[in-house]
Amino acid sequence: MDNVALAATSHVTLWSLFMQAGFIVKLVMLGLLCASVWTWAIIVDKAVAYGRMRRALNGFEQIFWSGQSLEELYRTLSDRKTTGMGSLFVAAMREWKKSFERGARSPEGLQMRIDKAMDVTLAREAERLEARLGSLATIGSAAPFVGLFGTVVGIMTSFQSIAGSQSTNLAVVAPGIAEALLATAIGLVAAIPAVVAYNKFTGDVGKLNQRMEGFADEFGTILSRQIDEKLQAPQHRAAAE
């Protein structure tokens, strides 16, 4: 009898365990497999997107600090699809030009509008960077419990089979326990990469946002000086006359 049991258990495969599982356990496994595929799709997409964003930030900083005039740089970027610092620059310069075209007189009001334009753009860029990271957090936290649910259901079904067969030999017990534990294993396979990727990407988003916030502060200071010079020059000429 022991030899028969060992022979039966020696041919147990992952596919056979899946096929032998009950409907609920199969549903849990399929859901976790789909979550794992979605996790890796997000990981690949975010890795590519963040790498592209870093290159865009590096390239824009190199151009911005090369000494090129702000007007010339704005003309170059205004008709293009920009991201990151480029979007902040275009938003600030667009508000700058609109305000002076309409006869801006208050330096404080103009500076406030420029800062607001960059804040809105920065929030939009941050939202785009953080898109779908919530899915990784959800999968990382929920997948082990979903797998555990499948395991509990599978073990309950296994115990019912043991009671129905009135036998506790290995051939009866092993497949049911194995298919139940497979659900937990798939849950961990889905959860572990999601948690690691979420933590990594959250740190990357923080660093990218810090770089953009730093540029917004520096560029706001540059524009503030130019606003003072541009608005105060007519006042000095009027006083001289």
Automatic annotation (TrEMBL):
Residues 106-213 form the MotA/TolQ/ExbB proton channel domain. It comes from the Bacteria. The Tol-Pal system is composed of five core proteins: the inner membrane proteins TolA, TolQ and TolR, the periplasmic protein TolB and the outer membrane protein Pal. They form a network linking the inner and outer membranes and the peptidoglycan layer. The lineage of its organism: Bacteria, Pseudomonadati, Pseudomonadota, Alphaproteobacteria, Hyphomicrobiales. It is found in: Cell inner membrane; Cell membrane. The gene is tolQ. GO terms for cellular component: plasma membrane. This is Tol-Pal system protein TolQ. Pfam families: MotA_ExbB (PF01618).
